[in-house]
Amino acid sequence: METKHFILGFTFGISISVISWIVGMIVNGLLVKTNYYKKLSNFNFISGKNLNGLIGIQYFKWIVKNTFFKFFNQQIKVENKKTDLLEIRHQMTQAEISHLAGFVFVILFAVYKSFTVNLTFGLTMMIGNIFLNLYPSLLQQENKRRIDKLIK
To answer: What is the pTM of this model?
Structure first.
């Protein structure tokens, strides 16, 4: 029975995480019009490279660069020295906040499903959420720090 909840929670988690991308874009569209957005654009969960290394962001970065994920957000690409870094940073901020909003959306859904279905179901939903929402957001934060150094 637990295996069934694990498999169903995992597949449902991936599905709801992909759907949460749209929810995140909607929330980002609403937040961009507020004063709070400026604070969010400079917010960092992880401020240093050491913890990013421990959780494997470099592997996630490799996956994004070398798989079909590289085709998702084509506006976040430095092609030459004439590229507008402020515009790329803005696009990164939008992607980061959208993924964070999606992450929170799935957390709320996972908590609800933990109570209505099974704790295993709710917890395994978070596997997809971590890799499809949290890690992309953390990667954007790392990339924004690199862009900020170039801008200065």
So the answer is: 0.87
